[in-house]
Amino acid sequence: MREMGLRARYVRLLEAIQGIEASCPLKASPWQNAFIESVHALIKGEWLYQ
Fold first, then answer.
1. CA torsion angle for 29, 35, 38, 39 (degrees, to 10)?
2. Per-residue pLDDT tens for 12-25?
3. What's this model's pTM, rounded to 2 decimal places?
4. CA atoms within 13 Å, Cβ hemisphere of 47
């Protein structure tokens, strides 16, 4: 995927997140925030840097 340009990666990301609905979570503890941040890092690593 390294040969793909930034625009192609952006389009691919938009296609991957179609249908995901944003929500406003309740106030969370730092431990819960750390967990979700690690999940986001895994998703980013899998989808953007294949």
1. -120
2. 888 888 888 777 66
3. 0.39
4. 16
